[in-house]
Design goal:
The structure is a single chain. The chain contains ten helices and ten strands. The strands form two sheets. An eight-stranded mixed β-sheet has the order 1-4-5-6-7-8-9-10. Strand 7, helix 7 and strand 8 form a beta-alpha-beta unit. Helix 6 packs parallel to helix 7. The protein is globular.
Length: 290
């Protein structure tokens, strides 16, 4: 496998097969994951060779995650061939996961998505980031919230599970309210099965880092990030979604199920907001892994 290699926390126990390298878009202003990494897609024959090697090393694998940044960008025919071979070589295989952009999902037909689901494609991880169109435009996401939501709905109607990531603080101080309300509205439409909230951290080599340094982007303080999260959660009307904000970037760690734990989340956030523990002037600590 090549570095860098990324996978969702939920795939920690999965066998990681890096069939792509980098991200086919790689132009979001906030993302430094694949900067300097040319996008490259392994041929189907190369992927088959990798699968054979890994099936001999890990014959009892039940969960597989296909890396890297947007594996669903591949044509349906390639995905079908790869998933067929995975099912042939891993007799205990139960589920397959991958990152997916909205455009990559939407490029597949309903019939194609259902067929991939029949081959044990299980969870697609989408970076919605924000439900506000202006925030997405400013961070050069390259997709609209409406388009990503529609793609997520289609995937779930085909039996796939959507795990959605949002970025607290992505609108900065200028668009915090719009970001919170717009994101809640988008999530209410999509109704993802899993939802993860991370906090945006300016990373060197990204446009966002430069914007912060030049005063063009004003980061939220710890206090304001928690208030933004509270506003977002207050506006969520989800029917059955696992929610987590336990990523190392976050100010506060929450984990539970919505709507069941909504009142508990709001109470915890209210107590934190009313306390004196939050930094009201700056974003606070930067995670040690940056």
């Amino acid at each position: 496998m090549n570095n860098p290699l990324f996978r969702p926390p939920a795939e920690a126990d999965s066998l990681i097969l890096q069939i792509d390298q980098g991200c086919p878009y790689n132009r979001c202003t906030f993302c430094g994951m694949y900067r300097g990494v040319p996008y490259r897609r392994s041929s189907v024959d190369q992927v088959r060779t990798l699968i054979l090697q890994e099936s001999q090393r890990y014959p009892r694998a039940t969960r597989i995650f296909l890396a890297d940044g947007d594996v669903m960008r591949r044509p349906f025919e390639e995905l079908r061939a790869i998933l067929f071979f995975l099912n042939e070589q891993f007799s205990r295989l139960a589920r397959i996961g991958a990152y997916a952009g909205g455009g990559s999902i939407a490029a597949k037909s309903v019939e194609q998505l259902r067929f991939l689901r029949s081959l044990k494609l299980h969870t697609l991880y989408m970076g919605l980031e924000s439900g506000d169109e202006e925030v997405l435009r400013r961070c050069n996401k390259g997709e609209t919230a409406a388009h990503m939501v529609d793609a997520g709905i289609m995937a779930q109607e085909c039996g796939l599970r959507m795990s959605v990531m949002i970025l607290l603080g992505l609108g900065g101080s200028d668009y915090s309210r719009e970001h919170a309300v717009g994101t809640a509205n988008a999530l209410n439409r999509m109704q993802p099965r899993l939802l993860s909230a991370l906090r945006v951290i300016p990373v060197e080599s990204t446009e966002l880092y430069e914007d912060v340094a030049r005063g063009r982007f004003h980061q939220l303080s710890e206090y304001d990030v928690v208030r933004e999260l509270r506003g977002m959660l207050a506006n969520l009307e989800l029917n059955s979604t696992v929610f987590r904000s336990n990523h190392g970037s976050n100010v506060v760690s929450l984990e539970g199920r919505l709507p069941r734990d909504k009142d508990r989340f709001l109470s915890e956030l209210d107590r934190l907001i009313e306390s004196t523990t939050l930094d009201r002037e700056s974003p606070g600590r930067t995670p040690l892994w940056l």
